[in-house]
Write a structure and sequence with these properties.
With about 220 residues, the chain is α/β, with parallel strands linked by helices. It is built from 8 helices and 8 strands. The chain has one domain: Rossmann fold (3-Layer(aba) Sandwich). It has helices at about 15-25, 30-40, 45-55, 60-70, 90-100, 115-125, 165-190, 200-215; strands spanning about 1-5, 30, 80-85, 110-115, 125-130, 135-140, 155-160, 190-195. It is globular. Bound molecules: adenosine monophosphate.
Length: about 220
């Protein structure tokens, strides 16, 4: 099953996508994570993307599309995937459809995880990320067992450099400018399902799994 997770930064897409990927045994593809990897390793793509990311702006479509196309060519994509952070605009949604069409494939379901502004600001402000394994924590809502240390790989946790007040504001503005047309695009294709990201992450995960199981019997345990 090919699943897209849509929603504002801070709605919990990353957390849900990681957990859903484990439950359904599907690869999780986050364009944000892939771009951060490129920045970290100072690749040609990373060098081009870094400035946009620091400012909370979208990295040019063609750069992200090329990166995603390479990921889609991996053999682990056959059974499906959970795509998080892509598409961000209509042009990307159409590119995604074209990429999959070339493989005689399509997106099956789009889950729109919305969240209120109050929750978004609170979540992003306290978010802590492990730079080694990518696990997410939150200073208050989901603290690590040892302060500032990743539960899984014992590395130091850090705030994402784009999780500062000014960049958060810009990222939300960019998101709001594009989301309405994306919602309409997938609504018209009858692929869109809405869930509230304001709820407890465990509850959101249960609802998401129930939804996917209802749509595809092969995922029923
Ligand atoms: P995220 O981790 O999804 O919040 O993404 C972090 C940053 O990476 C965004 O603010 C953008 O600068 C960039 N980015 C991630 N996904 C995309 C995308 N699909 N298109 C363009 N830029 C992206």
């Amino acid at each position: 099953m090919k699943i897209v997770l849509l929603g504002p930064p801070g709605a919990g897409k990353g957390t849900q996508a990681k957990r859903l990927a484990q439950r359904l045994i599907l690869p999780h593809i986050s364009t944000g994570d892939l771009l951060r990897e490129n920045v970290k390793h100072v690749t040609p793509l990373g060098k081009k993307a870094e400035d946009y990311m620091e400012k909370g702006l979208l990295v040019p479509d063609e750069l992200v599309a090329e990166m995603l196309m390479r990921r889609f060519d991996s053999p682990d994509m056959k059974k499906g995937f959970i795509l998080d952070g892509y598409p961000r605009n209509i042009s990307q949604a159409k590119t995604l459809d074209e990429m999959l069409k070339k493989k005689d494939d399509k997106i099956d379901v789009v889950i729109y995880l919305d969240a209120s502004e109050r929750i978004i600001i609170q979540r992003l402000g306290g978010r802590l990320v492990c730079r080694v394994c990518g696990a997410n924590f939150h200073e208050k809502n989901m603290p690590p067992k040892k302060k500032g240390i990743c539960d899984f790989c014992e590395e130091k946790l850090a705030h994402r450099s784009d999780d500062n007040a000014e960049t958060i504001r810009k990222r939300l503005e960019v998101y709001r400018n594009e989301v309405a047309s994306l919602i309409q695009y997938y609504d018209e294709q009858k692929k869109l399902y809405r869930l509230s990201g304001d709820e407890d992450p465990e509850l959101v995960l249960d609802k998401t799994v129930q939804l996917v199981e209802k749509l595809d019997d092969t995922f029923k345990v």
